[in-house]
């Protein structure tokens, strides 16, 4: 299969997953892309397609956006990203990755198997959630879990959860895309593959959004925690 067609197919699936759940496209696409693309091509390509996904979802969910929910996460993520870039130069990142993976798997399995509860976290928890998402995202390009857990435990509607995740990921994606552009990572090869994959990721996102509309809140939360288990396993499998 030509790399352009394979890349488009991968992003079709990745867009569908994030269109349905509100997250997860990079964790689906990046491991598969890295099998046949250089990581310096795959990562900025994921970011550009993330802009398509999150912008599309933002237009769909804009009436559910609440600045007081999204802004604290975005502001807290900035120092997290700065610290994450610094820690990336050190050799202890594997411990953080393993700890995060085990936390995701254990907590998500507990949430799936236990009696459903409806906690209501204080809004101040947005600060550590945003900070950790920025930190982990800068180190591993997979910073969603802290914010995903925070939104899932805030006793919001499923539209509020998905809209908050979308607004936060939109901010992060544009921030990282600007950094990639200024550092020269977005080159002609990346842009060429992006032109092939962007229509596919758009179709996937729209199809995923249709499936999301069929999910009730309790089922939506189960889907979130099931994907968090998968994300944890994928983090463990990167060694």
From TrEMBL:
Family that this chain belongs to: Belongs to the 4-toluene sulfonate uptake permease (TSUP) (TC 2.A.102) family.
GO CC annotation: plasma membrane
Membrane-spanning parts: 6-29, 41-58, 70-88, 95-113, 125-149, 161-179, 185-207, 219-237
PANTHER family hit by this protein: MEMBRANE TRANSPORTER PROTEIN, TRANSMEMBRANE PROTEIN YFCA
Name of the protein in its database record: Probable membrane transporter protein
Domain of life: Bacteria
Species the sequence originates in: Candidatus Desulfatifera sulfidica
Membrane topology: Multi-pass membrane protein
Keywords: Cell membrane, Membrane, Transmembrane, Transmembrane helix, Transport
Cell membrane found in the keyword field: yes
Subcellular location: Cell membrane
A Pfam cross-reference name: TauE
Predominant place of localization: membrane
């Amino acid at each position: 299969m030509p790399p352009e067609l394979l890349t488009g197919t991968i992003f079709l699936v990745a867009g569908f997953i994030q269109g349905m759940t509100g997250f997860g496209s990079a964790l689906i696409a990046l491991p598969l892309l890295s099998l046949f693309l250089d990581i310096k091509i795959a990562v900025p390509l994921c970011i550009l397609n993330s802009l398509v996904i999150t912008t599309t979802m933002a237009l769909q969910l804009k009436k559910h956006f609440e600045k007081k929910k999204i802004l604290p996460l975005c502001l807290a993520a900035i120092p997290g990203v700065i610290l994450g870039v610094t820690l990336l130069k050190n050799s202890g990142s594997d411990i953080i990755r393993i700890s995060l993976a085990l936390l995701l798997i254990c907590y998500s399995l507990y949430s799936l198997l236990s009696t459903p509860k409806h906690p209501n976290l204080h809004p101040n928890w947005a600060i550590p959630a945003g900070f950790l998402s920025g930190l982990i995202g800068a180190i591993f390009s997979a910073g969603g879990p802290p914010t995903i857990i925070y939104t899932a435990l805030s006793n919001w509607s499923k539209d509020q959860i998905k809209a908050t995740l979308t607004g936060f990921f939109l901010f992060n994606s544009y921030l990282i895309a600007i950094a990639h552009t200024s550092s020269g990572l977005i080159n002609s090869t990346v842009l060429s593959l992006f032109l092939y994959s962007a229509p596919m990721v758009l179709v996937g996102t729209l199809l995923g959004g249709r499936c999301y509309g069929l999910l009730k809140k309790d089922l939506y939360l189960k889907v979130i925690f099931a994907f968090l288990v998968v994300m944890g396993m994928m983090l463990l499998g990167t060694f």
